[in-house]
């Protein structure tokens, strides 16, 4: 079971690494993106070497028992070093001089981590007392081996320090970014860091209890690995949210907008833009571009039909809609849906009212997230486009115009 779980998470993590690597190759000046790519690779390697069968297979291949643990913890050190560099970059301040100082401090920090880790690996090499594999209970099996304990203590100290720093700074940085997906990702990353500190604390407490003659393997070999695994998943989620979040949101908007877009463009195919950009490609390609395109084409249709909508139509819709106690957003969506349907209906039969509407767009007040607000408004229009209330309003509009037109 452990093999399946860890290998699946490892495969997913490496897929994320590949995605981030492609993004970084397109934007090589984005140092933070490159760092997160390297850090994600460290987490992905941890998952792979945590699989007991891979752990033992690697050791059989190299002929050294528990050497896989060195590679596993070295991957954690890659993450820790990346976290320290991120901390120095984010706290560097403005200006080229500040960035130069941050680069110098980053080189020093990475060098210090490398030196300390070289000492730790040396402790493992000289202090490993036997050739028995311990993929699940390494930290409790060698509590009486000074060299291995040096290896473990240095590992926990470096890892814990990087987690504490990153976990403290991420929420502060996220507070400056409002409700963006990057801010959400940073908060999830911070949660992963704090849970990682629980792992470190469990290991240290386990050492102390073992030295006191009261070993607690359930803590070191049970609670600690579980908290570390969940922390790693949160870290990966934090790294992936800034990229995945907007795409998921775009997919949801696209799914809600598509029925409305198809309906309103059936009679006006000239407004649609088919440049072959995504035809035949997988369904999650260019989601934001496709959502933008559909919204623009719906707006084009609305501009084209406004002269087919009676000038008082929206006022009538709003009056009827208020009678059912809709909130402002729903009221605007119902009004716009009814006006859109009325305009398409009149144009289909060639009817031009004596006084056409100036506009059939009824949007709510907008805030800083203007595009997001417009997306949500049009999605609500799509939701109510065939609602009973819209049908009732359209029936009244047809009845009001029947007498003058006969």
Order of helices and strands: HHHHHHHHHHHHHH
Structural class: mainly alpha
Helix content percent band: over 70%
Roughly how many Å apart are the termini?
A: 77 Å
Mean pLDDT: 85
> Given the structure, what is the number of helices?
14
Instruction: Write down the Rg.
Output: 30 Å
Beta-strand percentage range = under 5%
Outline the biggest β-sheet: none
Number of strands: 0
* Poorly predicted residue ranges: 275-280, 364-368
Global outline? elongated
Give your account of this protein's structure.
The chain is mostly helical and about 400 residues long. The protein has 14 helices and no strands. Helix 5 packs antiparallel against helix 7. The radius of gyration is 30 Å and the shape is elongated. The model is unreliable at about 275-280 and about 365-370 (pLDDT under 50).
Descriptors:
406 residues, mainly alpha, 0% strand, elongated
SSE map:
Layout: H1 2-26, H2 31-50, H3 52-62, H4 67-90, H5 96-127, H6 138-141, H7 146-175, H8 181-211, H9 217-265, H10 287-305, H11 313-322, H12 328-349, H13 370-384, H14 388-405
Question: Can you describe this structure in just a few lines?
Answer:
The protein is 76% helix and 0% strand. The chain has 406 residues and is mainly α.
């Amino acid at each position: 079971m452990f093999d399946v779980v860890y290998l699946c998470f490892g495969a997913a993590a490496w897929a994320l690494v590949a995605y981030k690597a492609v993004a970084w190759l397109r934007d090589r000046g984005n140092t933070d993106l490159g760092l997160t790519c390297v850090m994600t690779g460290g987490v992905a390697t941890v998952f792979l070497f945590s699989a007991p069968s891979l752990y033992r297979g690697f050791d059989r291949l190299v002929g050294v028992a528990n050497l896989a643990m060195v590679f596993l913890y070295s991957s954690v050190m890659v993450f820790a070093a990346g976290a320290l560099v991120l901390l120095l970059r984010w706290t560097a301040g403005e200006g080229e001089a500040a960035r130069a100082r941050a680069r110098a401090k980053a080189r020093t920090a990475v060098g210090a981590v490398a030196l300390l880790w070289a000492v730790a690996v040396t402790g493992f090499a000289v202090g490993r007392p036997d050739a028995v594999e311990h993929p699940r209970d390494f930290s409790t099996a060698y509590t009486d081996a000074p060299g291995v304990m040096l290896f473990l203590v240095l590992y926990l100290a470096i890892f814990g320090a990087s987690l504490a720093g990153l976990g403290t700074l991420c929420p502060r940085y996220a507070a400056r970014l409002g409700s963006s997906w990057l801010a959400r990702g940073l908060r999830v990353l911070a949660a992963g860091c704090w849970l990682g500190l629980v792992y470190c604390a469990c290991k240290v407490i386990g050492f102390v209890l073992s030295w006191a003659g009261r070993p607690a393997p359930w803590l070191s070999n049970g609670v600690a690995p579980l908290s570390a695994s969940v922390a790693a998943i949160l870290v990966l989620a934090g790294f992936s949210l800034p990229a995945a979040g907007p795409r998921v949101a775009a997919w949801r908007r696209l799914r809600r907008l598509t029925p409305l877009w198809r309906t309103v463009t059936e009679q006006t195919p000239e407004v649609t833009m088919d440049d072959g950009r995504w035809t035949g490609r997988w369904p999650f390609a260019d989601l934001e571009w496709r959502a933008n395109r559909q919204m623009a084409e719906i707006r084009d249709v609305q501009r084209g039909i406004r002269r087919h909508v009676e000038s008082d139509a929206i006022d009538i819709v709003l009056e009827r809609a208020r009678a059912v106690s809709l909130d402002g957003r729903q009221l605007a969506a119902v009004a716009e849906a009814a006006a859109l349907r009325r305009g398409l209906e009149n144009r289909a039969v060639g009817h031009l009212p004596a006084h056409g509407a100036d506009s059939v767009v009824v949007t709510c007040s907008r805030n800083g997230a203007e595009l997001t607000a417009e997306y949500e408004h049009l999605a609500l229009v799509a939701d109510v486009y065939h609602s009973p209330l819209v049908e009732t309003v359209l029936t009244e509009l047809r009845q009001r115009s029947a007498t003058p037109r006969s």
